[in-house]
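Design review, sub-item: ligand-bound model
Attendees: FS, YL, KQ
YL presented the inputs for the magnesium ion complex:
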Amino acid sequence: MLAEARGFMFDLDGTLVQRSRDGLIALPGAAEVIAAVRRSGRPLVVFTNASHVAPAEIARELAQAGLELRDDEVITPVCSAMRYLAGRLPDRAVVVLGSEDTRRRMADAGVVVLADADGADPGAVFVAHVDEAVLAVLERAARAVQRGAAFLTANYAAAYAGRDGPIFSRGAMVTAAIAKAAGRRPTVVGKPSRAALREVTSRLGVAAASIAVIGDDIGMDIALGRIGGSTTVLVRSGISAGTPDPGGRKGPDLVIDGISDLISMLG
Ligand SMILES: [Mg+2]
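KQ shared the predicted structure:
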């Protein structure tokens, strides 16, 4: 099954690494799996829904954990948002509700970035990870969405797995506030979404059906893989540890206990 895959997408947290106070720690077998994929000559990417850190910074943290990935092998929802915007709304101003760093990176990539819809006619509102929110800014973003601006979010899942239990997604909270006020559903560009899948397939240069998607989250990673008929592998080392095998229509093609189980399956 995996021997036939022509490209690989790995989730990060709970799949290849665990977060600790001291940074990222590679899970057993993660470095060996990456090395085995490279030896086979097939491309790979890592997709994390963390939208507040630059891919280059993530690659640097991964190198410290012993996992060597190029900057362009690391994808976040900011990457898929920029591809979406470039394809559909080129040259339009975008209100980015996110960190200062996210706004700067998007502006550096050529996006016309605004921090507030005030007095502007933005083509889109994009919500990424936020640390704080100003209600007046959210109101103006909601009005822009009501007037027809595209409404994108990095993530609309309520929470992600922390060491001490679920951590609420502030980006999802802000997205929900705007959605409620504007009466519009957001378009997710992180996992799982078509925009995220397009980013993965274009980076890999491989059609979705020939990709293996490996992750620990059924609602994110396995759901992403199923959009385009990729081969899906659930790793039970993270958020889905201890849950019963989902199986059925929404289930993965393969369930493994840890990433090291892949080494012998790569062909
Ligand atoms: Mg994960």
